[in-house]
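Supplementary Note 2. Why include the ligand at all?

Several targets in our set were suspected to adopt different conformations when bound, so apo predictions alone were not considered sufficient. For every target with a known small-molecule partner we therefore ran a joint prediction. The input for zinc ion is given below.
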Amino acid sequence: MTADWMCMGDELRRIEEAGADFVHIDVMDGVFCPQLTVGPPVIAALKTRLRKDLHLMIDEPVEKVRAYVEAGASMLTFHVEATRHPHRVLQALGSSVVRGVALNPGTPANAVEPLLDDVELILVLAVNPGWSGQRFAPGTEKKLHEVKELVERSGRSVIVGVDGGVTRENAGSIASMGVDLIVAGSAVFDGGDARANLASLQAGVGRRSV
Ligand code: ZN
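The joint prediction is reproduced in token form.
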């Protein structure tokens, strides 16, 4: 969302060259959250050697997720708040993608507990999706710890990520919260030099490849 859509090929090349692990694509439907972004045809048209990490902020995704898998998702995350049947959505996703569930700031960590046997990624949102100009919510650190405890207790290997409110200034302290994955948007693309911005973010967080 924060890249320059008129130059998307160049933007993707810049983050490829800077060694990004994934390209994170925010899919919003104007129903689950206020903004409207892109759907499967645009995602399929993005030519990149980066793996596509799709973050679906769409209402009732169960009948829709296969189209996103077929559009080239490597990882696909949906919101537990967006569906009455999160377990069914996980079944619909199948085994060809990394399956993720996301939690809005107002959702407790234990909402993911019944799903832990069937997910590989939990994405904790530090802002409410679809409203711009928000800061990293202060309750996020506590929720990350609670999610990590649930994951440890499950004995499964699950990636814990954070999305929203990440800046070049706070990325280091977010990394010290013990997360496996940090999603950055404007911290990469604002200011015009995505390659340099990403390199400085990676240095600041002590990056390991996922
Ligand atoms: Zn996202």
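The longest strand covers residues 22-28. Residues 140-154 form the longest helix (15 residues). Comparable summaries for the other entries are listed in the accompanying table.
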